Every structure is written in structure tokens, then in C-alpha cells.
Amino acid sequence: MSTPSLLILPGDGIGPEVMAEVRKVIAWFGDRRGLTFTVEEDLVGGAAYDAHGVPLHDDTMARAQEADAVLLGAVGGPRYDDLDFSVKPERGLLRLRKEMDLFANLRPAQCFDALADFSSLKKEVVAGLDIMIVRELTSGVYFGEPRGIFEEGNERVGINTQRYTESEIDRIARAAFDLARKRDGRVCSMEKANVMESGILWREVVQKVHDADYPDVELSHMYADAGAMQLCRWPKQFDVIVTDNLFGDLLSDAAAMLTGSLGMLPSASLGAPMPNGRPKALYEPVHGSAPDIAGQGKANPIACVLSFAMALRYSFDNGDEASRLEGAVEQVLADGLRTGDLLGEEGGSPVSTVEMGDAIVAALEKSL
Ligand code: NAD
Q1: What range does the domain containing 345 cover?
Q2: Cβ(260) to ligand 1 under 6 A?
Q3: What's the pLDDT score for residue 262?
Q4: Best substitution site from 262, 300, 329, 337 to test ligand 1's pocket, by max atoms within 8 Å of Cβ?
Q5: Are residues 135 and 245 in the same domain?
Q6: What integer pLDDT is reported at residue 1 of this predicted model?
Q7: Residues 273 and 348 placed together within one structural domain of the fold
Q8: 10-residue block means of pLDDT along the chain (368 residues)?
């Protein structure tokens, strides 16, 4: 097989700072584990606007379509706030998601033991937590027609439509089952089949896909409101949760807070398989460009590093090396290293972005 390719788009604000640390990690895997990638770098967001007058150049879009995986830092910043909507930095990211047809958004909620005190829940409820929320990203109530604000009699009515086709449900279900096979082998599907027809169809199709092609994966169904309660009560009961666009939006943000800081949260968006069998894929931290700390060496690079770990696991089928990298992050946290965002009320002295990156590479070296 040819060397896999990675397109790196650092973007704006802290994006380039955290990505520089990921590049050290990528270099380490090449030097020490023989895991080499063809790495290309390009512009997105405000950086692309400054260079080309658009937040994503057509050539960059074409390179993203060709790459085995795209790794993005963050986009946006106050400098671009007054730009026309069509060229705002965020449009670059939206174009990538749309044209690559990234229909499955993966948001892990993983709680490292050393940070369990950061959660708003009790330590024993979240310590060691490792769940994955798979949210359908390109359909559902945010896209369904009819939509709009209409006149009805002597008042106005706001309308949005929840709409899912069987094929849309089928493909997100498969994405969830495939992921579960790389994890603990369990999927919980969440909808509101008790009150919504789209939920009844969702449940039927997920069950059908399971019975036909994934009998080895354990499948359960839960109403999304009950699921939200269970996420707060005992989140460790879940492995993979699959749900629609709207419920996924809410449940993934709620699950994110189980783990504490924004600087720790990776994500992935996956599309259909390419001819080489790998899914189209974009990996990025959940956080934005953090203009308040950009250029000061304060950013936590862990969310971006863990996004690369997701790429190793889900694009490059290398769960062992992904676990090695997650283990290195766990080790530096256990050793007490903290960027500013990870210092609790008791304070302490923060390490810089570069020091955190170096410590992760040193922990990788120790893992050999
Ligand atoms: P943000 O995520 O950039 O920052 C929110 C807060 O979290 C800030 O106080 C920031 O300093 C802190 N923070 C975020 N990431 C951190 C990290 N890695 N280490 C330490 N602290 C971190 O959200 P915001 O302030 O609402 O938005 C800033 C800009 O980013 C805006 O232009 C927004 O549109 C853009 N944005 C981009 C993305 C993306 O690229 N995917 C996502 C959200 C926001």
C-alpha cells in the first residue's frame, strides 16, 4: 500500500501553535514506529482569506478530497468579524464538511483520571470514562424542508421539518457499528420513537442494518430524553451512542462537559469510503482559535494531539498506536503537567504549549 497522506490545515489563532506540537508527534511516529505519512500543509480560514481572498482556495479543496485524512487546527478571529458572510473564516470549514459530505460527526467524551476533578459530576462517575457520540451531521431538522417563518391567519408561525431518508439512517448506523467494532462492541441508538415518526423509522432502520450485517455488535435503543438523563447519571454504561443531528448536537455538548476543559476535546467528521476503503475524514479539536490567548504560548495542544490519535484509529486502522498516544497524554497529566486551562482553583504553574508537546513526545519515547 502506498504511503498514506495527511493534509494539515493549521488555520488561525492558536491553530498553528497547537498544530506545531502535533507535527512533532507525527514526526516521532515516523522516526520511531515506522509510521510515515506524506504530509502536506495548506491554508484555511482567515489565513486563506489573507492570502487568496477566500477562506478556502479551490486547490486546497481539491487536495482535501484527495488526502487520506485532513487535520485542521481552528479558524476565525476578531480581525475577520466584519467580513462579508460568504468569505468569513468559518465558511472554509463549512465548505470542507459539505463538499467532502462528512455525514458522521464523532465526538468522544474521554475522562483522564488525573482530570476527573474538573468534571461537574462526581469523580467516581467520570474517572476512566470513554464514550463516543456519533451524530448525523448533514440531514435532519437543521436541513429539512419546509422551513421558514410564515404568516398564518393573523400571526406568524416558525417551521422546521425533521426529515430522514432510510439511506441516511442506514449510512450513519453503519458508521456507528463500524466504530463499535474498533471499540467495546456496543451501540446505543437514541431517538424519540415514542412521539416522532422519523424516530420510528430511525429505530427500524438501525435495527435492520444491525440484524443484517452487524449481529456481533450489541445494539440497544433509548429515547433521547432518557439518554440525556443516563448520560448524567452513569455515563460509563455507554460505548457508542448514535443519534440524529439535533439530539446529537445537544447530547455531544452535554457529554463534553463530563470531561472538563475545551482544550482536551478532539473530534472527527467522516464521510463515505474512498476507493482505498478509508472514509473521507476531517479531524479537528472542538475548540476555536482562542484569540484571547493566541500567540502567547498558552494554548493546550492536547485536543489537537488527540484528534491525530483519532486519525490513527479511524482512518489508518492503527488502534495500538492511537492507544500509545492517548497513553502518553494520560502519562503527562498523571505527572502533573498542566497548561493554564487545566489549572483548577488551587492554581499552580502552567507549562507552555511547546513544553506540553515536548512532554508528550518524551512520554511516547518512554512507552517503547
Ligand atoms: P474558543 O474555543 O476559541 O475559546 C473559548 C475559550 O476557551 C477561550 O477563553 C479560550 O482561550 C479557551 N480555549 C479554547 N481552546 C483552548 C486551548 N486549546 N487551550 C487553552 N484554552 C483554550 O471559542 P470562542 O472564543 O467562542 O471563539 C473564538 C473564535 O474561534 C471565533 O472566531 C469563532 O468563530 C472561532 N471558532 C472556531 C471553531 C473551529 O475552528 N472549529 C470552533 C469554535 C469557534
Answers
A1: 1-106+265-368
A2: no
A3: 83
A4: 262
A5: yes
A6: 62
A7: yes
A8: 92 98 98 96 98 98 97 97 94 93 94 84 89 94 92 96 97 96 95 98 98 98 97 95 95 82 91 92 96 97 97 94 97 94 83 98 98
End position of a domain, from candidates 202, 236, 257? 257
Within a domain: 184 = yes
Counting atoms of ligand 1 from 1, which one is nearest the CA of 15?
40
For 203, the grid coordinates are 429505530
Of 257, 276, 300, the domain-final residue: 257
Q: Which pLDDT score, from 0 to 100, does residue 161 have? A: 96
Model pLDDT, residue 347: 78
As for how many domains the chain has, the answer is: 2
Q: Which of 56, 118, 49, 171 is nearest to 302 (CA)?
A: 118
Q: In whole angstroms, how far apart are CA 45 and each of 13, 29, 291?
A: 10, 28, 14
Task: Give how far Cα 145 sits from Cα of 101, 152, 160, 195, Å.
Answer: 19, 17, 7, 20
Does 288 contact ligand 1 (Cβ within 6 A)? yes
Do both 248 and 135 map to the same domain?
yes
Which ligand 1 atom sits closest to the C-alpha of 284? 41
How many Å apart are CA 231 and CA 228, to the nearest integer?
A: 5
Q: Which amino acid is at 108?
A: P
